[in-house]
Each structure stands twice: as structure tokens, then as C-alpha cells.
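Possible race condition, two jobs.
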Amino acid sequence: MLYAPVVSFAPTSSRPPPARPALSVVCAVYNEEEVIPELLDKLALVLSMLEFSSEIVMVDDGSTDRTLARLKSMIGHAPGVRIVELYRNYGQVAALGAGMSVARGDWIVMLDGDLQHDPQDIRRLVAEIANGYDLVATYRDRREETSFRLAVTWVGNRVNRYLTGEQIRDFGSAYRLFSARLLAMMTDGFGYVHYNTPALYINARSRIELPITQFRRRYGASKWNLISLIQYNLDFLIHSKKVTQVVLNIGLLGIFTGAILYISSLLGFAEPARAISAPITIAFTSFLIMMLAVIWREVMQTQRFARGQPPFLIAAVWRDQGDGTPGAETGRFPICEVRPRRPPQNGCECVGF
């Protein structure tokens, strides 16, 4: 049992949680107040057409506009809505992990919250469950994006295919349906999901990719930039089956190059050897620094996973109290960061599993 301070700013809901749904739709949003009503209305309409129970888990990733207020106002209007309020902004990948940590469905649908994904496609994804797939991914057959982003995606997909050995058409398409069992490999001992995309593809037993259209944004601007794209793709490097081989080959190339330059200097080609050695030394040193950064990132992530410290902090989870008003859930999942195991004191309340 974990003991931690409760971070909640509204009356808690004493109403028992509904029965475990078959499907959880997880969607992370950040400063998307304009799209919230339309998004939730479309999701509720699609889910009402399905033959099994469902819930909508909306994650507010520390928005600075009225996104959280808009989400709370939709409680009671869109059935099955639960809102995960994060303490601050952590980024889309971490926010998705927070949503999956509290989702209760046997199947998870993840999609973007900017209406670039058509909620109607959920019906197509769900239909593939009957065919035995535990991962139904998508690829962007039509994409209304800038030429630069299309070029970055083209390069990234080819590099990631080589690194992981997985023949996926579009690693960057975030519209997916998968069995909640696949989250077991990404869940620490405290129940937090440390979501990453390559682990999802690598651990899937049977998968399929369906074509979708990704529409242009109607509101706001993309939250992704070059740095976030690089950090996202580092996960593929970490999970690569070939990275060890690539690094060893580069190391052997460095040894061979050094030997050639040394022999050249002994044979009287000292000046050309020195001219060549400087840029080669800079290149290899830069590569080593990059690898140290990757290793350090992985060490820190592994340490957080082992300690049960997720890359997010949940402030509260909101749901319908039964009268159409939002109430904060307690006692069903870890709220606030993991604390040392100790008896409650100084007003702390047990909110663990």
C-alpha cells in the first residue's frame, strides 16, 4: 500500500465506479479548448454504435487555457468520460502513459485530440478484433501536412524499420487499437504505465495496419518540434535489435581508420594524415557523446521504472458523480508521486492500490 498526499481540488466522488468497460479510448490534449466539445460529441456518437461497453479517458496535459474547464463541462453530456488532470505539462507520450495507467478497458484506443483523426475510424479498428489481432495500427494514406513534416516522416520510418526490424509502414501514426495485455511490458510494480511506441509493436503477437486520412488542423498549432521528434525516435534506438551491431561496426571502423593514419604517418605522409585525422576525430568524439546521452537517458528511465516513478504526476481524476457534476476519484490508482512506504502522517491519506 502506498501513502501519498492527495492532490485534489474538488469534492471526491463516493459513488462506486462503473463496471469494467471492454474498451477505453485514451486521448491526450494540451491547449485544445476549441475542439473539446466537438471531439467528445463525435467520440460519444461512435462509441454508442458499438456493441460493448466503453469509457473515454481524456488527459489534460497541464493546459494553460480553458481546456480542463471545457472537459469538466462535458461530464454528464458525454457518457463514460473520465478526465485525468496532470500537475503540469509533460508531453504527449507521458500524458498517454498517465491515461493508460487509469484506463480500465480490456482494449485501448489511442488517438490525437486535435481532430486530425476521424473518430469514425474506431469502428474499423474494433472490427479487426474478431480477426485475432492484438494490435490494430494505422498508416496515413492521405496526410494534409507540410512538405517538411512529410519528409521527416519518410526518413524516420525508414530508419526505425532498420533499427527495430519491424516492417511497419508508419510508426508515427498515433491512431491505434491494442489489447491492454501489451501494457504489461510497460507497467512498473506500482501500476504506472511508461508508454513507448516501439515496445508496443515489438511485443504484439499479431498486428495489422489500416489506412486512414489525417486531416489538417483546424485550430491551434502542432505541439511537436524537431527536438521532440528526436526524443520520440530515441525510443526506437533503445529498443533496436541492431544498435549493438552498428556501434561495434563503427568502433571497428575507428580502429581501422586510426591504424591506416598511423601507418601513413610512418611512411612519410604525416601532413595528409594530420589533415584527415582532425575531422575524423571530431566525428568519432561527437558520436561517442551522442551515445553517452542515449545511455544516460536509458539509465534514468530504467531507474524511474524500478522505483515506480513515472514521467508524470496525476493531480486528480474526474468523473460523473451521478448528477452530471464532476467529482474526483480516490483510492483506485496512485495519485501524486510515489512516496516511501510509511504510515500516514501530517494529513497524508492512503490513495494507493
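Job #2 (started ~2 s after job #1):
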Amino acid sequence: HMSKVYFGLSGSDANETNIKLVWYYNNVLGRPEKKKIISRWRGYHGSGLMTGSLTGLDLFHQKFDLPLQNVLHTEAPYFYRRADMDMNEQQFVEHCVNELEKLILREGADTIAAFIGEPALGTGGLVPPPQGYWQAIQAVLNKYDILLIADEVVTGFGRLGSMFGSDHYDMQPDLITIAKGLTSAYAPLSGSIVSDKMWKILEQGNDQYGPIGHGWTYSAHPISAAAGVANLKLLDDLNLIQNVKEVGPHFKSALIDAVGDHMNVGEVRGEGLMCAVELVADKADRKFFEADQKIGYQVAAALLSHGVIARAMPQGDIIGFAPPFCISKAQAEEVAEKLAQSIKEVLG
């Protein structure tokens, strides 16, 4: 159901494009009041003014006077960090959906233009959604005529073992944001993929009001486009997405085997080659470390000393892994072993 692509340079500028297209779309339809965008806490959508506002992480708001007006945030689909530990996964999904619907009704559905979300949370903790989450969320969006923007900067082009996270989770977005995986970051290139439904209205606006006044100097730069074509060809020629599909579950299992029973490992989670290990002060009570202890950063530094690059994710002590698609099962096991060694060095 997707139709056209507008190219940019980064995920941030692609999401800026998306929000402008959403606003333009509603203006053409004679709905100038339908402009608010709902994002989620712990989501990441860029670091510009609008995209930093959409991002739901404190680091990107503090001291920047963000978020801007017309940006709202709702519950993150982060089952491990749910407020009510007695909730099961289905009950938590219902809670997320109820929180979203309450927000829509409180603000007025006629003021809500779009909902933006990563198919699986990236920078906010590398968190796959609970089962049934996207189907339930989309039912609410459809009920209130709210567009869905799937931010696939992290999940697009194979990270989850499927070409797109939208396919992986059976989403039907109106806009898709692409970037990192498009060129494997060898050159800057992003894109906004526009649905047939939206494209028809954009054409209507073009006929009524003249050319759409939007563009970037380096949009679809030929060098970046060439890098994208070469990268996508290698994904196919080297059968890399199939390797993600096969090695991803093995990597997660290796992490569970290596560190899952450690007294300071609260959760091992992941989908495809996107995995995370969340560290806690007390596993039984799910008590988190104090931020100033910087446990995640210490473990990431220890890993680096052993030749493994991992990321200490923000707002928690979360060790994130997004290895190259060519990683082997043996290499995945080695990463898991080095993680166990690093956690032992830092936490005993």
C-alpha cells in the first residue's frame, strides 16, 4: 500500500519531512485543527526541534526547551518496566491501549493528526513490543482517523530478520521513515515512504495550491543513492537477512545461557540481531541501580577492553547489541562469553 519515496540525509530530517506532510495532508482535507502528534516515552525519532520533541528521552529535552507544542507522549510498550508487576503481557497491552485512548479523548480526536512509533524501541532500550501490541494500537488509530508513522531507521532493511519491522509486526503505516540500514551508514541517506492514501491527497494539494514547498539541498544525492543501491544489492547477494533470521535467535539464547542467571541481570531480550541485557541492583524486586553509579557504562567499557563494541543505552543500565548482519553463530557466542566476563569484572 506504499507508493512513493522522498529522500533526505538522516532519520531526523526524514521525520521532519513526515510531520510536514502530515500537517499538509490535513490542511488539504480542510482539517487545520488536526495537528497534534502522539509519540511514546522512550521512543527515539531524532534530535532536531520537532524530532527531538518526538523523542521520549529526557536527555533530548532537558535544557533545550523541548518538547514543542503539539507533541504528546504516551506509555512505552516496555513490559519489563511496567508499573504494575502483577500485569501479564496481555493486560499490559490493554493498559497501553487504554492510556492511548484516554489521551486521544482528553485532547480531542479532531486535534490528533498522527501517532509515531518504532516497530521495536531502539535507543530507548532495544525493546520488542509485547505480542498483539501493534494490532491493538492500530485499531485505536483507525477508530479515530489518526495516521501511523512507522519509524524504521533502526528496524528497516533486515535488523529484525525481516526486510521491514512493519512487515515483521503486521503494521499498516501511512508513512515509513528509513535511514541507517538503507546504506549501512556508509553514506548519509534517508527517506520518507508515503502511502497511496496520503499520496493522493498530496497530489490534490499540488493541483489546488501549487508545488509543495519542501526540500533539502542534498536530497537523493547521487553518491548516497549509489551507496544505497550497492548496500541493498549486498543484502541480497550475501543472503544477509536470512543470516539475521538464523543467527539472531542463537545470539539471544547464547546471551541467556551466559548471563541470564546472574543476580544482576534483570532481563535478556531481543528480536533478530537487536538484543539487550538489562542490569539491576536486585533481580527479585526489580530494583534498578542509581544513575550516578553508571553501571551500564562500566560494563560497556569492560566489553570494549575485550574487543567487543556494545552500547550503554540511556535511562537505565542497559547493554545494547546490534551486531553486523554477517556475524556467525560462533562470533555471537564469543560476544556472550565476553559479556559474562565483563559483568563479572564490574559486578562480581
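The chain has a mean pLDDT of 97.
Logs attached separately.
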